[in-house]
Amino acid sequence: SRGDCHTALNRMVAHGVQCGLHIFVSRDTDNELCRLCETKNYGSMNNVELSMMFTLEEALFLMAELGMLQIKGSDAMTPIGPDQFFESCCSEVPGFPQKYAAYRHFRRLGWIVRANALKFGADFLLYDGHVEEVHAQYAVVMAREDTRWQDMLAGSRLTQGVAKELLLVMFLHHGVSTKLPALG
Asked: Nearest CA to 60 among 184, 182, 180?
């Protein structure tokens, strides 16, 4: 059953190290996380380093939601928890709480979310199937309160040119939380 699969996944924890805005995990062919990476559902393979590479959003989701990833702190020895990692991401990336909330929302709805969307003028691409089998259906842009309509129209024209629909995500509250969203 789906619950049994989720429990089994939680028992297989991979260990990662942060380098800039990515998390690197040693490639192990007998690791469930590696299988997820190979199917392009999460992360990407880094052939030079023989490792898997995850964005901060992917790493936090794998850590906090699936319990499949443990990240070492700055001393590369001590594991840090999801709350501490979330706070670290918030201090390194402007707008991270909103970006992670959007990533988490789409993942929980069943979309495959890829962050390598800059060439499409977007923050994320949403796939309704394996990345190598289907094209992204949506290009997600994280709009801010100061986003101009001209920018949105330009983004819409760009996404139409690459056969994707533009999906705008905007958070309308003014407070920014540095707490990890409640799980569940």
From this structure: 180
Q: How far apart are CA 127 and CA 168, in angstroms?
A: 16
Q: What is the value of pTM for the model shown?
A: 0.79
Burial class (CB in 10 A: 0-12, 13-18, 19+), 29: exposed
Q: Rounded distance, CA 74 to CA 26, Å? A: 17
* Tens-place pLDDT, residues 119-151: 777 889 999 888 878 888 898 988 777 776 677
Classified as helix, coil or strand, 52 is strand
The reported pLDDT for the residue numbered 180 is: 57
Q: How long is the chain?
A: 184
Query: What's the DSSP call for residue 93?
Result: S
Pair 136, 126: CB distance under 8 Å: yes
- Assess whether pLDDT exceeds 70 at residue 174: no
